[in-house]
Amino acid sequence: MESILELESVTKEFPGVRALDSVSMHVDRNEVVGLIGENGAGKSTLVKILAGIHRIDAGTMKFGGEQASFRSPRDAFDRGLTMVFQEQSIIQTLTVAENIFLGREREFLRFGIIDKRAMNAAAKVELAKVHLDCDPATKCANLDFAARQMVEIAKALSLDGRIDSDIVILLDEPTSVLERREIDLLFEIIKELKNKASIIFISHRLDEVLQVSDRVYVLRDGAVVHETASKDATITGLHEHMVGRQLDHRYYRENKQRQSLGKPVLSIRNLSIDGEFRNLSFDLSEGEILGIAGVVGSGREAFARCLGGLLPPSGGEILIDGRAVRLNHPHQAVNAGFGFVPSERKSEGIVIGLSVSENMTLAAGKRFSKFGFISFERERAECQRWIDRLRIRTPSTKTPMQSLSGGNQQKVVLSKWQIFGSKVAVLDHPTRGIDVGAKEDVYELIREMAEQGVAIILLGDTLEEVIGLSNVILVLKDGEVSARFEAPVGAKPDQIDLISKMV
Questions:
Q1: Greater model confidence, 44 or 481
Q2: How far apart are the first and last CA of the chain?
Q3: In this structure, are strands 424-428 and 455-459 parallel, antiparallel, or unpaired?
Q4: 194, 228, 243: which is the final residue of a domain?
Q5: What is the domain-level CATH number for residue 100?
Q6: If residue 83 lies in a helix (H) or strand (E), which one and from where to where?
Q7: Residues 405/40, Cβ–Cβ less than 8 Å
Q8: What does the alpha-carbon distance between residue 490 and residue 503 come to, in Å, rounded to a whole number?
Q9: 3-class DSSP state for residue 214?
Q10: Which residues share a beta bridge with 473?
């Protein structure tokens, strides 16, 4: 097979961190290569080098048999290498068509004016490739996350037929917010695409990596530690190469599931949001983990955002310790004792321009101030304690958040609400887009939070996760509770039990 993309001894350093250490790999024509590793293993740095965002410090890269060093993402795109980012690059104020052809508007100029009708017609062709049925003139802000992901992929596929060179598409966690039907469709698209492009597929869902890839590279601590044909690999084996040790088989820490619960903390009475969900009622006790299951559009995401103060309810009551509270704004939710971990951490969970310590103490600044003066030493000591406890990979507490990998950013978000001392933690896909090792750390923290008496509402990344972590599971369907399952240790419900009530 002829290699389209080759890396030889590529090294990249940032202040205090060697992100890549002599990485060598290749991608052949019409091949799907899986790239896996823990958060902080170097995957993000590697793909940003390929996409023209970072420069190589040492080593070489060849594209199409020629020495290459992309000066920018646009340069990489024009040469035939494009990336679908995990944290979406869609501009929501633009239309679908404008996003697909962003930077290439010249193709549709007629007498100095963009021919919107021609652009929309061309976008319709690209949308058909991903089987997304929407008006190209629709603003992307009006699409859900999964639909925006398909627009990202359509944008990448739009290179086909527009350049003469080989195409390499980087797919970074493309399935993280997709439903099973959409994932199956994406995999069909990838099979079709192999006839005219090569693909680097990055995912923490190792079963999907093995399903869709021809070969797999494993990164750990910035170096390639394993390469294998997918047909010769196992999920367990890949896990162990990623983390450098055998995994604890008690993955969801069910042995630590709290059996004896405390007093009721949260009471929901006939809570509703018009057009989203209606008449939700339940009680949640200290140390109890309540899992919420349902398909996209079932109302579960809107419910989580309601408790985070982001979507005001249209009816019903929310009580904390028997006292009614209003949640019309995030600061009201925080003052009431809610900690909200959003699914889109980069845009909602962190302040990207602040440091690790500033993000950790954002909600609890008063704890570290006296007479209006902040004790930076106390703040630093508390943050360092959580960095050590959660094994957050960061050179220091003052490191900018944008320097951290996605999994380490998520650990910072979780530690923020622990430092604040939330009574109720609302966890909206807390392990989305993070690796198996980081997930173990998050599961351990969730169990510790429950043991400390925090009441937890969990929207899991998978049904298996919801079942493994929860004491009780509510299933939402069309905005209403369709079933309630007890989930004690040793008597967990099956996934099929939940699915039958979800659809």
A1: 481
A2: 45
A3: parallel
A4: 243
A5: 3.40.50.300
A6: strand 81-84
A7: yes
A8: 26
A9: coil
A10: 291, 485
Q: What integer pLDDT is reported at residue 246 of this predicted model?
A: 58
Dihedral sign for Cα atoms in the order 229, 232, 236, 241: negative
**Across 86-234, where does the E strand assignment appear?**
109-110, 113-114, 168-172, 198-202, 215-220, 223-229
Question: Cα dihedral sign for 62, 39, 405, 376?
Answer: negative
Q: What is the average pLDDT across 402-421?
A: 84
Q: Compute the distance between CA of residue 311 and CA of residue 321 in angstroms, rounded to an integer.
A: 22
Q: Give me 18's structure tokens.
A: 């060697």
53 and 120 together in one domain: yes
Q: Output the pLDDT for position 391.
A: 83
pLDDT given for residue 248 in this prediction? 52
Pairing of strands 113-114, 109-110: antiparallel
Contact (CB, 8 A) for 63 and 118 = no
Residue 50 token pair: 């390929």
The domain in which residue 231 lies consists of 3-243
315-362 pLDDT per residue, tens: 999 999 999 999 999 889 988 999 998 887 777 778 888 888 888 887
Position 87 scores a pLDDT of 58
The rounded distance, in Å, linking the Cα atoms of 328 and 337 is 14
Are 237 and 255 within one domain?
Answer: no
Measured over the CA atoms of residue 344, residue 350, residue 351 and residue 354, the dihedral's sign is negative
Q: Evaluate if residue 249 carries a pLDDT over 70.
A: no
Residue type, 396: S
Confidence of residue 411 (pLDDT cuts 50, 70, 90): confident
